[in-house]
Amino acid sequence: LGLADIPTAIDELAALPAGPKREAALLAVVGRWAQLAPETAIGYATEEAIPALRTRMIESTFSGWARTDPAGALAYLNENPDGLHQEAAGEALFEAVAEKPIGEAFLFLESVDQETQGGLMHRTISRLLALDPMAVRGWAEGLPETPLRDAVISRSVTAWANYAPEQARDWIMERYQGDELAEQLPRLGGAWARNDPEAARDWYLDLPGELQTAKVGEEVFESWLREDHETASAYLDGAAPRAELDQGFKEYAYQLLRRNPAQAMDLTAKITEADTRSDTQSRVARSWAQRNPRAVLSYLEASSISAEDQAPLIRYAESRLKQQTHRNQR
Fold this sequence. Notes:
This protein is mainly α and about 325 residues long. It is about 80% helix and about 0% strand.
């Protein structure tokens, strides 16, 4: 559509019955109008009487404007906050920027005030990461040292690990050390396990002791159990207790917590570290006792859990049973 065609298109759409097809066509026309005469299009959108449709029309105007002049759209948004759906318009603008050539998107992001619009920048960055995480990482490395730069690099490495985990691993190991490395490894493990869980598990189990932290294990096994529960559960069911698998047994128990609490409690016995085992048993038993305290007490009576570990679980289950009994007698 050319600018001269817009009024006719608007009039024709107004004559149609309300419905999703009319709305979709209207949003497309308004978005196109914003590319040609953005302020006029915004004025039309803000006069829409239906609140929900008005919001979507404003989103379409800023999305359309961003495709031709994102800097102008952002300047207008900053200068005219009143009467606009600021958050929705900003999100639409920054998401549309990601559809531009990646170099142009980077130039726009570099012009944005990170302090006031860092959150909106992540809208663009999220979409760019899905397209080319390596390019995003390379761009972010050239930015000044800021929290945003560090966050973007971390996110790009996670996205990279979805496609080339070994390369992402090597890059992380070369670049980071100490606390920074400890922060990156759980992200790598979680992303790796979503796509190649058994390789991620083997990587985790082969990590040097100081890097084989509970957080890394938690991310690896949580992702594996979520994405491929059958294989992960079969592995953990057949595995002997060992410290490296504590987080796997813990996450597996949490997943079984509502479906099969007795099996979840059985799993906690495989956890070798005392505090982790106690915390996991407490969470499982408390959740179970909220629904069926008698079953918890019966389980504990026949359980091999030590008397010391059983004591707080029994107290909680008995208190829940008293509460249930009291409610039933009223």
